Predict the structure of Tubulin-specific chaperone A.
Amino acid sequence: MVLVSKSSTLASDLNRNLKVKIDSLKRLEKDYKYYQKELEEQKNTVQQFKNDSTKDEYDVKKQVEILDENKTMIIDTVKRLTDSVNILTDFLDDNQDKTESLEQYNEALELVERLYSEYLDGN
């Protein structure tokens, strides 16, 4: 039987929890970048449909609806990204004395700072 101290179990749990939060933010960032790319592509598609006299009005309208849905997804992703950044920041603040020694602590700080400056500043 192996005895594990509470402190090492706590550190392991904190490390795991921190990693999950970091990975979640990275996933949301990928989603955001994907939706931004998709938005630009859809804008081009809408413009092409509008410029093409052979396209039916219904087809143009459908492409505009797709564009609007994409804009909605971006808004939702920014909200989820903001919420996740706040959750991670709160987690780091609440556990600062315990998390500073964890491997992912600096990665988490850098990620929060980068996401805030690139995507959330001014939103």
Summary: Residues 28-120 form a domain with the Methane Monooxygenase Hydroxylase; Chain G, domain 1 fold (CATH 1.20.58). The first helix runs from residue 6 to 51. The chain has one domain: 28-120. Residues 46 and 63 are 6 Å apart (CA to CA).
